[in-house]
Design goal:
It is a single chain. This protein is an alpha/beta fold. It has helices at residues 20-25, 45-59, 82-95, 115-123, 138-143, 146-163, 180-185, 197-207, 234-259, 264-288, 295-318, 342-345, and strands at 7-13, 33-39, 71-76, 100-103, 129-133, 176-179, 212-216, 323-326, 339-341. Strand 1 (7-13), helix 1 (20-25) and strand 2 (33-39) form a beta-alpha-beta unit. 41% of the residues are buried.
């Protein structure tokens, strides 16, 4: 338990033999329940999870009488992806009445010692969902390889548009914590199961008007552009996640600004996109026919783009109070220095999501 809140941790693991056992062994005592999900591994991951879970449970009895054991091994017969594993863990945490649920990878790259800085914004009521951000400090930004930086910046931009959290960056960051109330309000079963689960979750949180905190966190990996290799196939990942974000963007506009309430920004988005698309088609058609009279189409395109920009400005303003940036290293003896809204932090020159 942490600050009178029960804490759960979801550990997705796929072919993490030799690593997931250490994740279990080093789990902090403040964690009440750990849901370790073997996501259809083909190696000895499941046996390692069972062995280390039995040893940990034997020497670390649960503090909460309602929980019979701290480590809960779970297994998928088939690989469903990281998002699928999180869905299973989140649902079990919800069923167990866990107050705050965090995520730690089964590969052992996440430092358990920093868990509390992601729990704090949630247990203190500053945010409903907290996530890491490797871009808030310039030294962390400079350390990332350029090809990774460009890909992450592109996905950050697309996620800003789709989710409405315009100041939140580094959406692929795996360090997260979420409140029980948030899990109750989003549709867990409808969560995206591919690698874009974190982007999808942000859209769902915004549709429920929940507050998100970006927590400054340096990358655990020392990047080497010659030796370091990602498990993600970016030529497949970016198109799939981009298509998902487009669907989610349209879903958010309809649900939040047309069905539940009304705001003209939804109509500005739709009308601006329609005018822009029609104008581009007109310009292409004019050029193909070698006509010189493209001025009216260019003016129409300018109008369409202007409408889209106005819609974005309205969207930013509507969601301004739902975004928080947290840098624990800037905290004084009081928590207020570390927990301030984005607007309050700007005079100090702290990098925001727009700077990446």
């Amino acid at each position: 338990m942490y600050k009178d809140n029960t804490i759960g941790v979801v550990v997705p693991a796929y072919n993490e033999e030799g690593y997931v056992g250490r994740v279990i062994d080093t789990m902090p005592n403040l964690v009440d329940r750990v849901y370790v999900i073997d996501d259809g591994s083909t190696d000895g991951t499941w046996r390692e999870i069972q062995r280390h879970a039995e040893a940990y449970n034997g020497s670390n009895p649960p503090e909460t009488p309602a929980y019979e054991a701290r480590i809960v091994p779970l297994q998928h017969e088939e690989n469903r992806g990281v998002g699928g594993a999180l869905k299973t863990g989140y649902q079990r945490a919800l069923d167990d009445g866990i107050d705050v649920t965090a995520v730690m990878g089964g590969d052992g790259q996440m430092d358990p010692e920093v868990l509390t800085k992601f729990l704090d914004p949630v247990v203190d009521g500053t945010a409903d969902y907290a996530k890491g951000n490797r871009f808030m400090r310039s030294e962390d930004l400079d350390a990332m390889p350029r090809f990774r930086l460009v890909g992450n910046a592109l996905l950050s931009l697309l996620t800003k548009i789709a989710s409405g959290y315009w100041k939140i960056a580094d959406p692929q960051n795996g360090y997260t914590a979420i409140s029980r109330e948030s899990l109750e309000r989003i549709d867990i079963e409808d969560m995206y199961e591919y690698y874009g689960y974190c982007n999808d979750l942000l859209v769902k949180l915004n549709a429920e008007n929940l507050r998100v905190a970006d927590v400054a966190h340096s990358a655990d990996t020392v990047y080497d552009e010659t030796d370091w290799k990602s498990h993600i196939k970016y030529d497949e990942y970016i198109p799939k996640v981009s298509a998902m974000l487009l669907r989610n963007f349209l879903w958010r506009l309809n649900r939040k600004y047309l069905v539940r309430d009304f705001h003209p920004l939804a109509l500005l988005y739709y009308f601006g996109a329609g005018v822009s698309a029609l104008s581009l088609a007109g310009i292409v058609g004019t050029l193909r026919k070698r006509h010189e009279a493209t001025g009216s189409w260019l003016l129409s395109l300018f109008l369409g783009v202007s409408l889209l920009l106005f819609a974005m400005v309205f969207d930013m303003e509507e969601n301004r109070d739902k975004e928080v940036q947290v840098d624990p290293e800037l905290a004084d003896d009081t928590a207020t220095d570390a927990l301030r809204t984005t607007d309050e932090r700007q005079p100090e020159g702290l990098a925001t999501a727009d700077d990446d």
